[in-house]
Amino acid sequence: MLHLVKPSAPPISLGPDGEIHRLELLKRYEILDTPPEAAFDRITALAADLFDAPIAIVSFLDGHRLWFKSHHGLDDTEVRWGPEAAVSTMETMIRGELGVGFFVSAPLITHEGHYLGALCVIDHHPREADERQLRHLATLAALVTDRLELRLIAHNAAARAEILAAEIDHRAMNSLQLVASLLHLQSRAAPTPEAAQQLAIAANRVMAVARVHRNFSANESIESVPVVAYLRRLGGELADVLGVVIDVEGTETSVPTKQLLAIGLVVNELATNATKHGAGPLKITFMPAAAGQYELCVLDEGPGLPDGFDVSRHKGIGLGIQVVRALVAQLEGHLSAGANPAGRGACFTVTFPCATPATDAGLRHLG
Ligand SMILES: Nc1ncnc2c1ncn2[C@@H]1O[C@H](COP(=O)(O)OP(=O)(O)OP(=O)(O)O)[C@@H](O)[C@H]1O
Ligand SMILES: [Mg+2]
User: Fold this and answer.
1) For the sheet containing 65-72, what is the strand order?
2) Contact between residue 189 and residue 151 where contact means Cβ atoms under 8 Å apart
3) CATH number of the domain encompassing residue 96
4) Residue 280 belongs to what domain range?
5) Which atom of ligand 1 is nearest to the CA of 319?
């Protein structure tokens, strides 16, 4: 015997306009063709158990197919039918395709009253179902709908948070540029040439932070960023600012976003030094090294490092290398300096491990 909890509004009877509207609503939930989720699988397992039946599905009616978000006891993930099929209820579709003897379903109706699909329980053999079971099935279907609404709310909240983060980034960048402009103005009014120079240097460093930040916040992902593409964007801007040719090479690798600001600031200092104390063209390379480490190099074709130069010592070191050392420490990495292996010039190398979510190697206070 068949027991069918009829969908309150059989989808196909909506008419062409109503059906188009319904499909648009369904798309908004972003559920179709998503991977299985334990929350839905738990509900189908419970529904099957409630009727002591082998199969239960959470299905969504998408045009000319029924797509299963959860399919307990069934390998198929969807049922399709041709456009000519005159189908009146979900039951007829499933019956026709799966050849079932027992079928009960409860509709998935959104909080606004729109029909999306059904929670169905199926057995190959005809059998009975009582009122209590059907009532519980309807409650389980309501739980599926609640879950869908929660997913939608979470998705919308995430989208809003991303817009907000982009807006905050944009304002932070504007503020940094404003601070840089103020420092430039102050350098013009400085009482001595030395003070003017120091203020101009400070203004340039603030601009560098803004530049480094702008180039990675332009990226969409908040988790990790393709680092070579990022270095190319940054290198392009630095080449304009420093008036030098900068070539960026490397193996594209996704690096946690929290490491990018430190990487960008290191490159900024080393490229500035390479132009000031060395000569172009500059080369920036980024390669994976052994044992989960990365290797970042900045090379130039200038006169090379001064005699006796030791990057880890204090003697002969200015603020630039001190900043680089602090950033490399944040990356939990190692800084070395030597001759450019290609011949003329200097080569600065930073090796550092890829950060895991547990180690925060983002920009903390320097020093
Ligand atoms: N690419 C390079 N080629 C040759 N010498 C370099 C190079 N990079 C750094 N040096 C040497 O290392 C020294 C320290 O660099 P550092 O960036 O700390 O100071 P700075 O550039 O002199 O001043 P600032 O504090 O403005 O950065 C430089 O003065 C220079 O002698
Ligand atoms: Mg310097």
Assistant:
1) 78-80, 65-72, 55-62, 115-123, 102-109
2) no
3) 3.30.450.40
4) 220-367
5) 25
Q: Is 308 in the pocket of ligand 1 (CB under 6 A)?
A: no
pLDDT tens-place string over residues 103-152: 899 999 988 888 899 999 999 888 889 999 999 999 999 999 999 999 99
Task: Classify residue 53: in a domain, yes or no.
Answer: yes
Q: Is residue 187 part of a domain?
A: no
The reply to whether ligand 1 has any atom less than 6 angstroms from the CB of 246 is no
Q: Which residue minimizes the CA distance to atom 11 of ligand 1?
A: 305
Residue given tokens 């400085």 in the structure block: 190
- The pLDDT tens digits of the residues spanning 207-229 come to 888 887 776 665 555 677 889 99
- Whether residue 251 sits in one domain with residue 122: no
What's the 199 CA to ligand 2 centre distance in angstroms? 15
Cα separation, 246 vs 275, in Å, equals: 10
Our count of domains for the chain comes to 2
Judgement on whether residues 256 and 148 belong to the same structural domain of the protein: no
Indicate which CATH number applies to the domain containing 362. 3.30.565.10
CA of 96 to the centre of ligand 1 (A): 78
Cα angle 200, 201, 203 (rounded to 5 degrees) comes to 65
pTM: 0.61
Instruction: Give the end of a domain, one of 121, 155, 189.
Output: 155
